[in-house]
């Protein structure tokens, strides 16, 4: 009977962590703001590296980001690190289409990639101004 209760407790913790992603590789969040909102720490989470999975599918496609938390304003910034290829890429080589105002990000990701090739950039929530 104890084993049954222990197993139920383990499953309960897994479900809680699934609903409350904490930014680890096993339990990635959608973005840094989500980590800040669900943090149980008295002073909030500490700025640093966390794992995110914007589509919240399998945690296998999660990637590391740098989260910057401003506890006074309640804003969290999600910073995706650049790859060597994206650092060497010149934005001036991209051609802006007449109809789109958000041309550069999608073009840059298609041309170079930044380690998030399996994730749609529209799934990452923008940082609030």
TrEMBL record:
SMART domains: COLFI. One of its GO terms (molecular function) is extracellular matrix structural constituent. Coiled coil: none annotated. It is found in: Secreted. Its main location: secreted. Keywords: Collagen, Secreted. The lineage of its organism: Eukaryota, Metazoa, Spiralia, Lophotrochozoa, Platyhelminthes. Residues 2-129 form the Fibrillar collagen NC1 domain. Pfam families: COLFI (PF01410). It comes from the Eukaryota. PROSITE patterns: NC1_FIB. This is Fibrillar collagen NC1 domain-containing protein. GO terms for cellular component: collagen trimer; extracellular region.
């Amino acid at each position: 009977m104890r084993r049954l209760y222990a197993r139920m407790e383990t499953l309960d913790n897994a479900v809680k962590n699934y609903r409350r992603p904490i930014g680890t590789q096993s339990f990635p969040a959608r973005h840094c703001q989500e980590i800040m909102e669900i943090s149980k720490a008295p002073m909030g989470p500490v700025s640093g590296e966390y794992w995110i999975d914007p589509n919240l599918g399998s945690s296998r496609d999660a990637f590391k980001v740098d989260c910057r938390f401003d506890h006074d304003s309640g804003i969290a910034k999600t910073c995706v690190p650049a790859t060597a290829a994206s650092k060497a890429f010149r934005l001036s080589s991209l051609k802006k289409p007449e109809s789109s105002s958000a041309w550069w990000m999608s073009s840059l990701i298609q041309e170079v990639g930044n380690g998030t090739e399996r994730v749609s950039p529209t799934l990452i929530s923008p940082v609030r101004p």
